[in-house]
Amino acid sequence: DGCPKQDLDAAKKFILEMYQMQNSERRRMYAHYTCATDTENIRLIFKAVKDTIMRIHLDQFSLS
Hints:
- The chain is mainly alpha-helical.
- The protein folds into 2 domains: 1-28, no CATH class; 32-64, no CATH class.
- It contains 2 helices and no strands.
- It is found in: Cell membrane.
- Its main location: membrane.
């Protein structure tokens, strides 16, 4: 599978590179590493994603 066993940093890099290879249009990509059981961290991630989506839509309609 190409990913060393029990190596967190290598696993994160491997997964990120898999996503980057699928990004054929070269869209901007943000990587956030988190633990799904850390509810405060997940809350921050969702807020950042929501803000990014809102900013993209505002830019599309020249409202920012």
